[in-house]
Amino acid sequence: MISERMTDALNTQINKEMYSAYLYMAMSAHSSNVGLNGFANWFMVQYQEEMLHTMKLYNYVSDQGAPVKLMQIDEPPQEFGTALDMLYATLEHEQFITKSINDLVDLAIEEKDHATHIFLQWYITEQIEEEGNDNEIIDKLKLAGEEGNGLFIIDKELSARVFNPPAAVTDWTQIR
Questions:
Q1: Using one digit for the tens of pLDDT, what is the confidence trace for 22-68?
Q2: Which of 4, 22, 28, 14 is nearest to 175 (CA)?
Q3: Are the C-beta atoms of 142 and 85 separated by less than 8 Å?
Q4: DSSP letter at 80?
Q5: Which ranges of the chain have pLDDT less than 70?
C-alpha cells in the first residue's frame, strides 16, 4: 500500500500525462490544418504514448490498493506557430514532465517507498528518450530550414513513425 501523499502525487501525475496526450492531440490537429501531415502523425503517436504512460500510472495506483482520482484536464492551446515553435513547446513540456517525474522519485525516496521508486525508473528512462527525440527534430529543423524542401523532407520522415504498444494492447488494464 502506498501512502496518501504518494497516492495524491501519482494521481496528479496521471492528470499531467492526460494533459500531455491532449496537448499532442491538439498539436496533431494543428499540424494537419497547416498541411504538415508527417508532423500530425508524429504528434498522434506522441498522444498514443502519453495514453500508455497514463494507463501505466493508473494501473500502478490501482494495483497498490489506492484510489485513482481523475481530475479535470486543462484545455490545450489550439495554435502553435511554426513547426520549430511546436517542437520547442514539446521539449519545454517534456522538461516539465521530467521534473515532475523526478519530484515523484524524490518523494518515493523520502518515504522509503521502494516499490514506487522502482516503478518510476521506467519513466526516468522514457523521459530521456522523449527529450532526446525532441532535440533531434529541433536540430534537423534548424539545419534543414523551416520552409521549402527542408521542411518537406522532415515532414515526410516524421510520417513514418508508428506507435509500438507493448505486446498486443487490446486491454488497457493489462498495461503494467
A1: 999 999 999 999 999 999 999 999 999 999 999 999 999 999 999 99
A2: 14
A3: no
A4: -
A5: 167-176
Grid cell at residue 104: 515523484
Helix ranges (H only) for 34-82 are 37-63
| Residue in the structure block whose three cell numbers are 498522444 | 47
Other CB atoms closer than 10 Å to residue 101's CB: what's the count? 21
> Which pLDDT does position 175 carry in this prediction?
58
The predicted pLDDT at position 156 comes to 93
Retrieve residue 169's grid coordinates.
494492447
What does each C-alpha distance from 166 to 33, 86, 170, 171, 172 come to in angstroms? Answer: 31, 28, 10, 11, 10
C-alpha cell at 150: 527542408
